[in-house]
Amino acid sequence: MSGPAVLPDVEVEEQQETRRQPPYHVILLDDDDHSFEYVIVMLKELFAHPVEKGYELAKQVDEKGRAVVCTTSRERAELKQEQIHAYGPDPLIPRCQGSMTAVIEPAE
Length: 108
What we know:
This protein is α+β, with helices and mostly antiparallel strands. It has a domain at 35-106: CATH 3.30.1390.10. Helices cover 35% and strands 17% of the residues. The protein has helices spanning 36-47, 51-64, 74-85; strands at residues 24-29, 66-72, 102-106. Strands 2-1-3 form a three-stranded antiparallel β-sheet. The model has no long low-confidence stretch (mean pLDDT 91).
């Protein structure tokens, strides 16, 4: 006589739903206390934008008052905003008292 039948373990696949964080824009705002050179160098150092891209963004900030310099997760956007605010004054403009201003907004 044989014992009760033992069924093999059955692996149950659990569906994991990956939720992506919504993206955020880091937006650089215009002012009259920073030169194009400052903006280009800052964008290169903080965002690794090539000089040409930095120039285009500096021009957009100057003409439109703002430019999206990065789209990323909220945490990284907040970090990049802090880095912009901590970058310091423009040494080419004596009246410059501090860093540029940036805001973060949800990307649509």
